[in-house]
């Protein structure tokens, strides 16, 4: 895999990124270290984590994933220099008071979170530091519509950028990014950065997969024109696009044991747990099989080959899953198959938005 630049930054990453939010919950530390090592051996130079991981978020596992990665760095001298390391500062609490108190996310919060991530990751610098979700109220995580009556913003975007600029100036962060953002948010971060000589966002990390292509509803144009790269997360639709729930559903007695969406009520209550999302996934999974592909191969190849996507974030719980996801690289989708994908979307929309 050739590396590609992220936005206007000097970061060059592989088009596949190893996501790590399962480390410390579904994946034990020893297994996580094996996955990290195999990923590096197979040429992936990009890993993504967050201060709030592992998922599902709990007070006793907050920061666990970064700690596991930091211990792997300590055990593998030289690995840190081979990798582009991305992590995230959590947005407002969203019911997680162990991350921060109150509805806002102050400049001091951003700095304190960065310091904590640096300690846990056992590194001196974070290559890409992202705001995990916006400080202001936005339609995300299953919320479809913007409602100005729910606005609780306390820290202006300019102030957030100034805090991030301080971290860049101090040499603790190289570049910055966003996550779960809207077209307005991306434009405003770029506008203010250019107006005030502050760091420019290089990336936005948003959901993008067959059952959620909402990124293509204007945000793709914004990012293309502004030079902001998409890091696509949940390319397998939280497991729905692997086919493992096609027969059983996510709550049935025969549902796979230990799978994320089958295990965590909070996830089922959001976008991935909607009956419409599973129904659409079954259609795409059947289409994959009809063309001689596994459902996962189709879903991953869709992301791997789209012009909108700079790097696709894969989350795995085993070496076998990692190898399967990496082996899907190079899979091509015919114009006929792409047209059939678009026809299903035209009919069913984006049910996991």
- State the end-to-end distance: 30 Å
What is the count of β-strands?
10
The coarse silhouette is: globular
Helical stretch tally: 13
CATH topology: TIM Barrel
**Architecture (CATH level 2) name:** Alpha-Beta Barrel
Describe the structure.
- It holds the Pfam family Aldo_ket_red.
- InterPro entries: AKR_Detox_Biosynth (IPR050523), NAD(P)_OxRdtase_dom_sf (IPR036812), NADP_OxRdtase_dom (IPR023210).
- It comes from Simplicispira metamorpha.
- Keywords: Oxidoreductase.
- One of its GO terms (molecular function) is oxidoreductase activity.
- This protein is globular.
- The longest helix is centred in the last third of the chain and has 16 residues.
- Helix 2 packs across helix 4, helix 4 runs parallel beside helix 5 and helix 10 packs across helix 11.
- Helix 7 links the parallel strand 8 and strand 9.
- It has an eight-stranded parallel barrel, surrounded by six helices. A two-stranded antiparallel ribbon has the order 1-2.
- The chain is built from 13 helices and ten strands.
- Helix content is 39%, strand content 14%.
- With 353 residues, the protein is α/β, with parallel strands linked by helices.
- The mean pLDDT is 94.
- It has one domain: TIM Barrel (Alpha-Beta Barrel), CATH 3.20.20.100.
């Amino acid at each position: 895999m050739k590396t590609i630049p992220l936005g206007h930054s000097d970061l060059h990453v592989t088009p596949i990124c190893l996501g790590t939010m399962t480390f410390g919950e579904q994946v034990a530390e020893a297994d996580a270290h094996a996955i990290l090592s195999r990923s590096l051996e197979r040429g992936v130079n990009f890993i993504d984590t967050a201060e709030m991981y592992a998922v599902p978020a709990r007070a006793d596992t907050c920061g666990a994933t970064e700690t596991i990665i930091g211990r792997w760095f300590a055990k593998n001298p030289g690995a840190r220099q081979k990798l582009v390391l991305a992590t995230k500062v959590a947005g407002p609490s969203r019911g997680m008071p162990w991350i921060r108190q109150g509805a806002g996310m102050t400049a001091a919060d951003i700095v304190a979170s960065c310091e904590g991530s640096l300690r846990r990751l056992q590194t001196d610098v974070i290559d890409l530091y992202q705001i995990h979700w916006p400080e202001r109220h936005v339609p995300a995580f299953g919320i479809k519509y913007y409602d100005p009556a729910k606005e609780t913003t306390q820290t202006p975007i300019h102030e957030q950028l100034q805090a991030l600029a301080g971290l860049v100036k101090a040499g603790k962060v190289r570049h910055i990014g966003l996550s779960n953002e809207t077209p307005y948010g991306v434009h405003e971060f770029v506008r203010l950065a250019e107006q005030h000589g502050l760091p420019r966002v290089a990336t936005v990390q948003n959901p993008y997969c067959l059952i959620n292509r909402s990124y293509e509803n204007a945000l793709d144009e914004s990012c293309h024109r502004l030079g902001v790269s998409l890091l696509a997360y949940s390319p397998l639709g939280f497991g729905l696009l692997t086919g493992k729930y096609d027969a059983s559903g996510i709550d049935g007695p025969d549902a796979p044991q230990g799978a994320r969406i089958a295990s965590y009520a909070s996830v089922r209550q959001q976008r991935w747990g909607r009956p419409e999302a599973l129904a659409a996934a079954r259609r795409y999974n059947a289409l994959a099989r009809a063309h001689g592909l596994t459902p996962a191969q189709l879903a991953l190849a869709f992301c791997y080959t789209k012009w909108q996507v700079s790097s696709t974030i894969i989350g795995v719980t085993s070496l076998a899953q990692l190898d399967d996801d990496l082996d899907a690289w190079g899979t091509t989708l015919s114009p006929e198959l792409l047209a059939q994908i678009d026809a299903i979307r035209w009919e069913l929309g984006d049910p996991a938005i």
